[in-house]
Amino acid sequence: MNDTFFIVGPTAVGKTSLAIELAEQFDAEIVNADAFQIYRGLNILTAKPNSEAQHQIRHHLLGQVSLAETMSAVRFGELACGALADIQRRNKNALVVGGSGLYLRAITRGFDEVPPPDPRLREELSALSVAELDLRLRDLNPQLAARTDLKNPRRLIRAIEIASVEAAVPGGGKCKAAGTAATTEDIEAAESAGVLVLRDRDDLYQRINERVNAMFREGVEEEVRALQDIGPTAANALGLKEIRALLDGQISRAQCIVKMQQATRRYAKRQLTWFRHQTTFPQLNLTPFSHREAVRAITRVFREG
User: Hey, where are the domains in the chain?
Assistant: First the structure.
């Protein structure tokens, strides 16, 4: 059985309640992979797991970063690697849960960080023949050699620069703890231990509409009004722009709710498109299932993965 599992899907699909029960079942801790739940504050607007859920299961990367801090997928990947390594050191399983595609990619695939040119190494390599460059690259990184034009000395030299840096840094900067790897086989292995949960469109849209209504019942206006320092990344949180327009008197409460619902539905559509095209996670439509049936189905996926 793998030690890292994934539950991914669009906003409001029901990932949180499934994750809590599955984490208990698999003796796992939850690693958040939502781009905005990682920020402190905005608990209502970003639909963070409530305090009871957080007390029940240990969560990582939830409310960890200041709203003023700029975040990126690469930065998230670094934080996630640390969290997953910590979980593994304590012999626990990890359950990565979220809907931010690039953040999940940072765990399952990583991002190749191309090193800058090395003038001294280039000078040394320029004195070698194409055959000698070929041999050196194959010795450093056979996989990189297999996808490099071995007749082109300029590309050979650049590939050797990259391979030399990767050889000096074990793992090439990728998150091995999370199953991230450069090969197709390793990517497929990582994604086999996960599931893309979705719902029929009408079902999902109804859940989205109700979630936005619930935010206003829970006091999302006061939460946004109390904001002070907020950086450019956190400022993109879904619904923030609309609520600020409401607080500035530009739109009514009813108009704000409708606009937030529309924006969230569009976002969910983009999420689904990304996951279907960029991952190989098996899909599970939750609409026909009860909660208990869905948990059993995902459990089977995890065990088979």
Answer: 4-110+175-304, 119-171
Alpha-carbon distances, residue 65 vs 94, 234, 289 (angstroms) = 20, 10, 36
pTM of the model: 0.76
Mode of pairing for the β-strands spanning 93-98 and 194-198:
unpaired
Query: What's the number of CA atoms in the CB half-sphere (13 Å) around residue 220?
Result: 27
108: its two tokens: 């399952």
Return d(Cα 226, Cα 254) in angstroms, integer: 21
CA atoms of 61 and 75, how far apart (whole Å): 12
Phi-psi region of 179 (alpha: psi -120 to 50; beta: other; left: phi over 0): left
Tens of pLDDT along 35-79?
999 999 999 999 999 999 999 999 999 999 999 999 988 889 889
Give the CATH fold of the 4-110+175-304 domain.
Rossmann fold (3.40.50)
Residue 9 CA to residue 33 CA, distance in Å, equals 11
Query: Per-residue DSSP letters for 1-45?
Result: --SEEEEE--TTSSHHHHHHHHHHHTTEEEEE--TTTTBSS-TTT
Cα angle 291, 60, 10; round to 5: 45
Contact 67, 231 (CB under 8 A): yes
